[in-house]
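S., here's the first fold you wanted:
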Amino acid sequence: MKNTIRLTHGQLLASAGDSATLWRVKEGVLRLDQVAHDATILVQLAFPGDLVGVEALCAEPYAYTITALTTCKLAAQSVEYDFNRFAAVAQGFMQQQERTRDMMRMRTGPVRERLAYFLKLLSQNADGSSRKLDRSDLPTLKQIACILDVASETICRELNAFMPAKVYNRAPRGEAIGSLAMAA
Protein backbone atom coordinates (compact mmCIF):
# COMPACT_ATOMS: atom_id res chain seq x y z
CA MET A 1 0.00 0.00 0.00
CA LYS A 2 1.99 3.01 -1.25
CA ASN A 3 -0.79 5.49 -1.95
CA THR A 4 0.47 9.05 -1.88
CA ILE A 5 -1.81 12.07 -1.76
CA ARG A 6 -1.26 15.81 -1.86
CA LEU A 7 -3.31 18.33 0.08
CA THR A 8 -3.36 22.06 -0.50
CA HIS A 9 -3.41 24.63 2.28
CA GLY A 10 -6.74 24.36 4.13
CA GLN A 11 -7.81 21.10 2.48
CA LEU A 12 -9.54 18.55 4.71
CA LEU A 13 -7.96 15.09 5.04
CA ALA A 14 -10.64 13.67 7.32
CA SER A 15 -13.30 14.62 9.81
CA ALA A 16 -13.55 13.20 13.30
CA GLY A 17 -15.59 10.01 13.12
CA ASP A 18 -14.47 9.06 9.59
CA SER A 19 -12.95 5.63 9.04
CA ALA A 20 -9.24 5.97 9.78
CA THR A 21 -6.24 5.27 7.54
CA LEU A 22 -2.67 5.43 8.82
CA TRP A 23 -0.66 8.13 7.01
CA ARG A 24 2.92 9.37 7.22
CA VAL A 25 3.48 13.08 6.63
CA LYS A 26 6.16 13.38 3.93
CA GLU A 27 5.95 17.15 3.44
CA GLY A 28 4.04 19.99 5.08
CA VAL A 29 2.12 20.38 8.32
CA LEU A 30 -1.29 19.04 9.33
CA ARG A 31 -3.55 20.49 12.00
CA LEU A 32 -5.57 18.16 14.25
CA ASP A 33 -8.64 19.84 15.78
CA GLN A 34 -11.41 18.87 18.12
CA VAL A 35 -14.52 20.37 16.56
CA ALA A 36 -17.44 21.12 18.88
CA HIS A 37 -20.75 22.85 18.23
CA ASP A 38 -19.46 26.24 19.32
CA ALA A 39 -15.67 26.04 18.88
CA THR A 40 -12.72 24.46 17.12
CA ILE A 41 -9.86 23.61 19.46
CA LEU A 42 -6.33 22.98 18.19
CA VAL A 43 -5.07 19.75 19.72
CA GLN A 44 -1.86 19.00 17.86
CA LEU A 45 0.24 19.64 14.75
CA ALA A 46 1.75 16.85 12.64
CA PHE A 47 5.09 17.55 10.95
CA PRO A 48 7.13 15.69 8.29
CA GLY A 49 7.90 12.15 9.46
CA ASP A 50 4.89 12.02 11.80
CA LEU A 51 2.13 9.44 11.67
CA VAL A 52 -1.52 10.51 11.63
CA GLY A 53 -4.50 8.22 11.91
CA VAL A 54 -2.97 5.91 14.52
CA GLU A 55 -6.59 5.17 15.46
CA ALA A 56 -6.58 2.83 12.43
CA LEU A 57 -4.25 0.52 14.35
CA CYS A 58 -7.10 -0.08 16.81
CA ALA A 59 -9.82 -0.23 14.13
CA GLU A 60 -11.19 3.07 15.45
CA PRO A 61 -12.38 6.13 13.49
CA TYR A 62 -10.39 9.38 13.44
CA ALA A 63 -10.62 11.14 16.82
CA TYR A 64 -9.89 14.59 15.35
CA THR A 65 -10.58 16.59 12.23
CA ILE A 66 -7.39 16.78 10.16
CA THR A 67 -6.67 19.72 7.86
CA ALA A 68 -3.60 20.78 5.89
CA LEU A 69 -2.03 23.82 7.54
CA THR A 70 0.43 24.07 4.63
CA THR A 71 0.67 22.19 1.33
CA CYS A 72 1.22 18.54 2.29
CA LYS A 73 2.26 15.21 0.85
CA LEU A 74 1.10 12.08 2.70
CA ALA A 75 1.83 8.40 2.17
CA ALA A 76 -0.54 5.66 3.35
CA GLN A 77 1.21 3.17 5.65
CA SER A 78 0.69 -0.57 5.53
CA VAL A 79 0.42 -2.38 8.86
CA GLU A 80 -0.57 -5.83 7.64
CA TYR A 81 2.01 -7.64 9.75
CA ASP A 82 2.18 -7.70 13.55
CA PHE A 83 5.71 -6.29 13.63
CA ASN A 84 4.70 -3.31 11.45
CA ARG A 85 1.66 -2.71 13.62
CA PHE A 86 3.74 -2.85 16.82
CA ALA A 87 6.36 -0.50 15.34
CA ALA A 88 3.65 1.98 14.32
CA VAL A 89 2.04 1.87 17.78
CA ALA A 90 5.42 2.46 19.44
CA GLN A 91 6.26 5.33 17.09
CA GLY A 92 2.80 6.84 17.56
CA PHE A 93 3.21 6.73 21.33
CA MET A 94 6.64 8.38 21.28
CA GLN A 95 5.47 10.93 18.72
CA GLN A 96 2.48 11.85 20.89
CA GLN A 97 4.77 12.71 23.79
CA GLU A 98 7.04 14.80 21.56
CA ARG A 99 4.16 16.71 19.94
CA THR A 100 2.55 17.37 23.34
CA ARG A 101 5.84 18.94 24.45
CA ASP A 102 5.95 20.96 21.20
CA MET A 103 2.45 22.34 21.80
CA MET A 104 3.45 23.33 25.33
CA ARG A 105 6.57 25.15 24.05
CA MET A 106 4.53 26.96 21.39
CA ARG A 107 1.97 28.18 23.92
CA THR A 108 4.04 29.23 26.93
CA GLY A 109 6.89 31.67 27.40
CA PRO A 110 7.90 34.81 25.51
CA VAL A 111 6.26 35.18 22.09
CA ARG A 112 9.61 35.55 20.31
CA GLU A 113 10.77 32.17 21.68
CA ARG A 114 7.46 30.50 20.79
CA LEU A 115 7.61 31.85 17.24
CA ALA A 116 11.27 30.83 16.86
CA TYR A 117 10.39 27.29 17.96
CA PHE A 118 7.42 27.13 15.57
CA LEU A 119 9.59 28.31 12.66
CA LYS A 120 12.23 25.72 13.58
CA LEU A 121 9.60 22.97 13.47
CA LEU A 122 8.27 24.23 10.13
CA SER A 123 11.75 24.16 8.60
CA GLN A 124 12.37 20.48 9.40
CA ASN A 125 12.13 17.83 6.68
CA ALA A 126 11.05 14.22 7.17
CA ASP A 127 14.67 13.03 7.05
CA GLY A 128 15.65 15.35 9.93
CA SER A 129 17.40 17.94 7.77
CA SER A 130 16.16 21.51 7.70
CA ARG A 131 15.45 23.98 4.93
CA LYS A 132 15.31 27.73 4.63
CA LEU A 133 11.78 29.06 5.00
CA ASP A 134 10.17 31.67 2.82
CA ARG A 135 7.12 33.64 3.92
CA SER A 136 5.11 31.76 1.28
CA ASP A 137 5.85 28.52 3.21
CA LEU A 138 4.06 29.83 6.29
CA PRO A 139 0.44 29.51 7.33
CA THR A 140 -1.50 32.77 7.54
CA LEU A 141 -0.77 35.22 10.37
CA LYS A 142 -4.16 34.42 11.85
CA GLN A 143 -3.38 30.68 11.87
CA ILE A 144 0.05 31.22 13.42
CA ALA A 145 -1.55 33.49 16.05
CA CYS A 146 -4.06 30.75 16.87
CA ILE A 147 -1.31 28.12 17.18
CA LEU A 148 0.84 30.33 19.44
CA ASP A 149 -2.18 31.75 21.30
CA VAL A 150 -1.37 35.43 20.69
CA ALA A 151 -2.79 38.32 18.65
CA SER A 152 -2.21 38.44 14.88
CA GLU A 153 -0.64 41.89 15.24
CA THR A 154 1.94 40.49 17.64
CA ILE A 155 2.81 37.71 15.18
CA CYS A 156 3.16 40.25 12.36
CA ARG A 157 5.53 42.38 14.44
CA GLU A 158 7.60 39.46 15.75
CA LEU A 159 7.74 37.67 12.40
CA ASN A 160 9.38 40.73 10.84
CA ALA A 161 12.32 40.22 13.22
CA PHE A 162 12.85 36.69 11.83
CA MET A 163 11.74 37.12 8.23
CA PRO A 164 11.52 40.77 7.15
CA ALA A 165 8.67 41.41 4.75
CA LYS A 166 9.53 42.55 1.24
CA VAL A 167 9.27 46.30 0.94
CA TYR A 168 8.20 47.77 -2.36
CA ASN A 169 9.54 51.17 -3.34
CA ARG A 170 6.87 53.81 -3.78
CA ALA A 171 7.20 57.14 -5.51
CA PRO A 172 7.67 60.08 -3.14
CA ARG A 173 4.39 61.82 -2.33
CA GLY A 174 5.21 64.94 -4.29
CA GLU A 175 5.94 62.98 -7.48
CA ALA A 176 2.71 60.99 -7.32
CA ILE A 177 0.63 64.15 -6.79
CA GLY A 178 2.51 66.04 -9.50
CA SER A 179 1.91 63.29 -12.07
CA LEU A 180 -1.81 63.32 -11.25
CA ALA A 181 -1.99 67.09 -11.69
CA MET A 182 -0.27 66.86 -15.07
CA ALA A 183 -2.71 64.16 -16.21
CA ALA A 184 -5.67 66.48 -15.52
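And the second, which I think is the more interesting of the pair:
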Amino acid sequence: MENKIEITQNENNDDNTPLKYIFQTVSDQSSYSNIFTKENFKTLEKWGLTKNMELIKFRFNTSITLNDIDRFLKDLFNDPIIKKNFNPISQIIPEEGEIIKNIKYKLLRTNSTNLDIFDCIYENNLVTPETGYIHQDYDIYVEDITISDKLRQSLLVEDSEPYLIFNDNVRDEFLFHIFKRIVIGGSFCEHDNIIFPYLDMTKCFYKDLVNATKDNESDKIIIRSIPIEILDIEKNNLYKHKFHPQNFFYVIIDPLQRYVHLWYHNWVDY
Protein backbone atom coordinates (compact mmCIF):
# COMPACT_ATOMS: atom_id res chain seq x y z
CA MET A 1 0.00 0.00 0.00
CA GLU A 2 2.24 2.76 -1.22
CA ASN A 3 -0.29 5.57 -1.48
CA LYS A 4 -2.68 7.15 0.93
CA ILE A 5 -6.23 6.67 -0.32
CA GLU A 6 -9.18 8.64 0.98
CA ILE A 7 -12.62 7.76 -0.31
CA THR A 8 -16.20 8.75 0.36
CA GLN A 9 -18.73 6.00 -0.20
CA ASN A 10 -20.79 6.40 -3.35
CA GLU A 11 -24.28 7.66 -2.47
CA ASN A 12 -25.81 5.97 -5.50
CA ASN A 13 -25.24 2.37 -4.40
CA ASP A 14 -28.32 0.21 -4.86
CA ASP A 15 -30.06 -0.16 -1.51
CA ASN A 16 -31.51 -3.51 -2.60
CA THR A 17 -28.19 -5.20 -3.32
CA PRO A 18 -27.97 -8.32 -1.12
CA LEU A 19 -25.11 -8.53 1.37
CA LYS A 20 -22.01 -10.21 -0.05
CA TYR A 21 -20.13 -10.32 3.25
CA ILE A 22 -21.75 -12.01 6.22
CA PHE A 23 -20.30 -11.70 9.72
CA GLN A 24 -20.29 -13.95 12.75
CA THR A 25 -19.30 -13.33 16.33
CA VAL A 26 -16.16 -14.98 17.64
CA SER A 27 -16.76 -16.35 21.12
CA ASP A 28 -13.06 -16.89 21.75
CA GLN A 29 -11.34 -13.50 21.85
CA SER A 30 -8.02 -15.09 22.91
CA SER A 31 -6.33 -13.64 19.82
CA TYR A 32 -5.78 -10.56 21.99
CA SER A 33 -3.53 -12.52 24.30
CA ASN A 34 -0.67 -10.03 23.91
CA ILE A 35 -2.80 -6.96 24.56
CA PHE A 36 -4.95 -8.11 27.43
CA THR A 37 -2.54 -9.73 29.81
CA LYS A 38 -3.30 -8.88 33.41
CA GLU A 39 -0.33 -6.52 33.56
CA ASN A 40 -1.13 -4.82 30.25
CA PHE A 41 -4.76 -4.29 31.22
CA LYS A 42 -3.64 -2.49 34.38
CA THR A 43 -1.28 -0.35 32.30
CA LEU A 44 -3.99 0.53 29.77
CA GLU A 45 -6.27 1.36 32.68
CA LYS A 46 -3.60 3.65 34.11
CA TRP A 47 -3.35 5.39 30.73
CA GLY A 48 -7.11 5.93 30.68
CA LEU A 49 -7.80 3.73 27.66
CA THR A 50 -9.95 0.88 28.99
CA LYS A 51 -13.11 2.76 29.96
CA ASN A 52 -14.03 4.17 26.54
CA MET A 53 -12.19 1.76 24.24
CA GLU A 54 -13.72 -1.20 22.42
CA LEU A 55 -11.81 -3.96 20.66
CA ILE A 56 -13.59 -6.93 19.15
CA LYS A 57 -13.18 -9.30 16.21
CA PHE A 58 -15.64 -10.97 13.87
CA ARG A 59 -15.35 -13.68 11.27
CA PHE A 60 -16.53 -13.13 7.68
CA ASN A 61 -17.52 -15.54 4.97
CA THR A 62 -15.67 -14.95 1.70
CA SER A 63 -12.47 -13.61 0.13
CA ILE A 64 -11.60 -9.93 -0.13
CA THR A 65 -9.18 -7.74 -2.11
CA LEU A 66 -8.51 -4.02 -2.05
CA ASN A 67 -11.07 -3.59 -4.81
CA ASP A 68 -13.75 -4.93 -2.46
CA ILE A 69 -13.21 -2.47 0.40
CA ASP A 70 -16.21 -0.24 -0.37
CA ARG A 71 -18.54 -3.21 -0.50
CA PHE A 72 -16.98 -4.84 2.56
CA LEU A 73 -17.42 -1.74 4.74
CA LYS A 74 -20.97 -1.20 3.57
CA ASP A 75 -21.86 -4.81 4.39
CA LEU A 76 -19.98 -4.63 7.69
CA PHE A 77 -21.87 -1.63 9.00
CA ASN A 78 -25.25 -2.93 7.85
CA ASP A 79 -24.83 -6.43 9.22
CA PRO A 80 -27.27 -7.17 12.06
CA ILE A 81 -24.63 -9.13 14.00
CA ILE A 82 -22.28 -6.12 13.96
CA LYS A 83 -25.06 -3.74 15.01
CA LYS A 84 -26.05 -6.03 17.84
CA ASN A 85 -22.55 -6.66 19.21
CA PHE A 86 -20.65 -3.43 18.52
CA ASN A 87 -22.10 -0.46 20.40
CA PRO A 88 -20.71 2.42 18.28
CA ILE A 89 -22.51 1.07 15.20
CA SER A 90 -25.69 0.17 17.06
CA GLN A 91 -26.07 3.91 17.79
CA ILE A 92 -26.32 4.69 14.06
CA ILE A 93 -29.78 3.43 13.20
CA PRO A 94 -31.05 4.69 9.83
CA GLU A 95 -34.72 5.29 9.16
CA GLU A 96 -36.71 2.09 8.72
CA GLY A 97 -35.96 0.54 5.34
CA GLU A 98 -32.76 2.55 4.84
CA ILE A 99 -29.17 1.38 5.05
CA ILE A 100 -25.77 2.85 5.87
CA LYS A 101 -24.07 3.59 2.56
CA ASN A 102 -21.94 6.74 3.01
CA ILE A 103 -18.65 5.82 4.66
CA LYS A 104 -15.56 7.99 4.59
CA TYR A 105 -12.32 6.17 5.28
CA LYS A 106 -8.59 6.05 4.67
CA LEU A 107 -6.40 3.05 3.90
CA LEU A 108 -3.30 3.07 6.07
CA ARG A 109 0.18 1.99 5.12
CA THR A 110 1.80 -1.22 6.37
CA ASN A 111 5.36 -0.75 5.12
CA SER A 112 6.80 -0.38 8.62
CA THR A 113 6.91 -3.65 10.52
CA ASN A 114 9.22 -2.80 13.42
CA LEU A 115 9.95 0.03 15.81
CA ASP A 116 12.79 1.49 13.72
CA ILE A 117 10.46 4.24 12.51
CA PHE A 118 10.66 5.71 16.02
CA ASP A 119 14.47 5.98 16.07
CA CYS A 120 14.10 9.65 15.16
CA ILE A 121 12.81 10.43 18.64
CA TYR A 122 16.25 9.53 20.00
CA GLU A 123 18.13 11.20 17.14
CA ASN A 124 16.24 14.46 17.73
CA ASN A 125 16.71 14.42 21.49
CA LEU A 126 13.08 13.90 22.42
CA VAL A 127 14.00 10.84 24.45
CA THR A 128 17.26 9.75 26.08
CA PRO A 129 18.28 6.47 24.36
CA GLU A 130 19.96 4.80 27.33
CA THR A 131 17.25 5.44 29.91
CA GLY A 132 14.18 6.00 27.73
CA TYR A 133 13.47 9.23 29.62
CA ILE A 134 10.98 11.44 27.74
CA HIS A 135 12.15 15.06 27.81
CA GLN A 136 9.63 17.31 29.50
CA ASP A 137 8.49 20.75 28.38
CA TYR A 138 6.01 23.47 29.33
CA ASP A 139 2.33 22.51 29.17
CA ILE A 140 0.43 22.87 25.91
CA TYR A 141 -3.29 22.13 25.68
CA VAL A 142 -4.85 20.51 22.61
CA GLU A 143 -8.59 19.85 22.96
CA ASP A 144 -8.37 19.10 26.70
CA ILE A 145 -5.24 16.97 26.23
CA THR A 146 -2.33 18.20 28.32
CA ILE A 147 0.93 17.98 26.36
CA SER A 148 3.83 18.20 28.82
CA ASP A 149 6.73 16.69 26.88
CA LYS A 150 8.54 16.65 23.54
CA LEU A 151 7.24 13.22 22.53
CA ARG A 152 3.57 14.20 22.67
CA GLN A 153 4.38 17.44 20.88
CA SER A 154 5.74 15.35 18.01
CA LEU A 155 2.43 13.48 17.82
CA LEU A 156 -0.13 16.26 18.20
CA VAL A 157 1.25 19.83 18.16
CA GLU A 158 1.51 20.66 14.47
CA ASP A 159 3.23 24.03 14.89
CA SER A 160 5.96 22.63 17.18
CA GLU A 161 9.48 21.71 16.12
CA PRO A 162 9.23 18.09 17.36
CA TYR A 163 6.21 17.53 15.09
CA LEU A 164 8.47 17.84 12.04
CA ILE A 165 10.49 14.70 12.82
CA PHE A 166 7.77 12.42 11.40
CA ASN A 167 6.94 12.84 7.71
CA ASP A 168 3.50 12.25 6.19
CA ASN A 169 4.31 8.73 5.01
CA VAL A 170 5.28 7.65 8.52
CA ARG A 171 2.16 9.28 9.96
CA ASP A 172 0.07 7.15 7.60
CA GLU A 173 1.61 3.92 8.88
CA PHE A 174 -0.72 1.81 11.01
CA LEU A 175 2.18 1.15 13.39
CA PHE A 176 2.50 4.91 13.94
CA HIS A 177 -1.25 5.17 14.57
CA ILE A 178 -1.06 2.50 17.26
CA PHE A 179 1.87 4.21 18.96
CA LYS A 180 0.19 7.63 18.83
CA ARG A 181 -3.09 6.38 20.31
CA ILE A 182 -1.33 4.59 23.14
CA VAL A 183 1.01 7.47 24.02
CA ILE A 184 -1.77 10.08 24.08
CA GLY A 185 -4.05 7.86 26.17
CA GLY A 186 -7.50 8.67 27.51
CA SER A 187 -8.93 11.69 29.32
CA PHE A 188 -7.99 10.39 32.77
CA CYS A 189 -4.41 9.38 32.05
CA GLU A 190 -1.42 8.86 34.29
CA HIS A 191 1.42 9.22 31.81
CA ASP A 192 4.76 7.43 32.01
CA ASN A 193 7.97 9.44 31.76
CA ILE A 194 9.80 6.49 30.20
CA ILE A 195 9.14 5.49 26.60
CA PHE A 196 9.76 1.75 26.84
CA PRO A 197 6.27 0.81 28.20
CA TYR A 198 4.68 2.62 25.23
CA LEU A 199 6.88 0.81 22.74
CA ASP A 200 6.18 -2.55 24.39
CA MET A 201 2.42 -1.93 24.29
CA THR A 202 2.65 -0.84 20.64
CA LYS A 203 4.25 -4.19 19.80
CA CYS A 204 1.51 -6.05 21.66
CA PHE A 205 -1.23 -4.31 19.70
CA TYR A 206 0.58 -4.80 16.41
CA LYS A 207 1.07 -8.51 17.06
CA ASP A 208 -2.59 -9.07 17.90
CA LEU A 209 -4.13 -6.89 15.18
CA VAL A 210 -1.88 -7.53 12.18
CA ASN A 211 -1.31 -10.76 10.27
CA ALA A 212 2.38 -10.83 9.39
CA THR A 213 4.28 -13.67 7.70
CA LYS A 214 7.88 -14.10 6.60
CA ASP A 215 8.67 -14.77 2.97
CA ASN A 216 11.04 -17.75 2.88
CA GLU A 217 12.87 -16.61 -0.25
CA SER A 218 13.43 -12.93 0.53
CA ASP A 219 13.30 -13.28 4.33
CA LYS A 220 11.11 -10.16 4.37
CA ILE A 221 8.05 -9.65 6.54
CA ILE A 222 4.85 -9.56 4.50
CA ILE A 223 1.77 -7.90 5.96
CA ARG A 224 -1.47 -9.56 4.93
CA SER A 225 -3.79 -7.32 6.93
CA ILE A 226 -5.59 -4.26 5.55
CA PRO A 227 -5.84 -1.49 8.19
CA ILE A 228 -8.46 1.20 7.59
CA GLU A 229 -9.19 4.37 9.53
CA ILE A 230 -12.91 5.19 9.58
CA LEU A 231 -13.35 8.94 9.32
CA ASP A 232 -17.13 9.27 9.15
CA ILE A 233 -20.28 7.18 8.73
CA GLU A 234 -23.37 8.84 7.30
CA LYS A 235 -22.04 12.17 8.62
CA ASN A 236 -23.12 10.85 11.96
CA ASN A 237 -21.59 11.50 15.34
CA LEU A 238 -19.84 8.36 16.51
CA TYR A 239 -18.34 10.26 19.42
CA LYS A 240 -19.30 12.55 22.27
CA HIS A 241 -16.89 15.19 20.90
CA LYS A 242 -17.02 14.73 17.14
CA PHE A 243 -13.72 16.35 16.18
CA HIS A 244 -11.53 15.39 19.11
CA PRO A 245 -8.05 14.22 17.97
CA GLN A 246 -8.13 11.17 20.25
CA ASN A 247 -11.39 9.83 18.85
CA PHE A 248 -10.54 6.91 16.59
CA PHE A 249 -12.07 3.95 14.82
CA TYR A 250 -10.01 1.37 12.93
CA VAL A 251 -11.16 -1.61 10.90
CA ILE A 252 -8.35 -4.14 10.41
CA ILE A 253 -9.15 -6.85 7.88
CA ASP A 254 -7.31 -10.15 7.83
CA PRO A 255 -8.12 -11.51 4.35
CA LEU A 256 -6.18 -14.72 4.93
CA GLN A 257 -7.93 -15.93 8.07
CA ARG A 258 -11.11 -13.96 7.31
CA TYR A 259 -11.23 -12.03 10.54
CA VAL A 260 -11.97 -8.35 10.98
CA HIS A 261 -10.93 -6.38 14.07
CA LEU A 262 -12.82 -3.26 15.17
CA TRP A 263 -10.84 -0.91 17.42
CA TYR A 264 -12.62 2.17 18.69
CA HIS A 265 -12.05 4.89 21.26
CA ASN A 266 -14.37 7.72 22.30
CA TRP A 267 -12.83 10.64 24.16
CA VAL A 268 -15.03 11.42 27.16
CA ASP A 269 -14.10 14.15 29.63
CA TYR A 270 -13.44 12.82 33.12
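Why I say that: The longest strand covers residues 53-60. Residues 196-209 form the longest helix (14 residues).

Talk tomorrow,
H.
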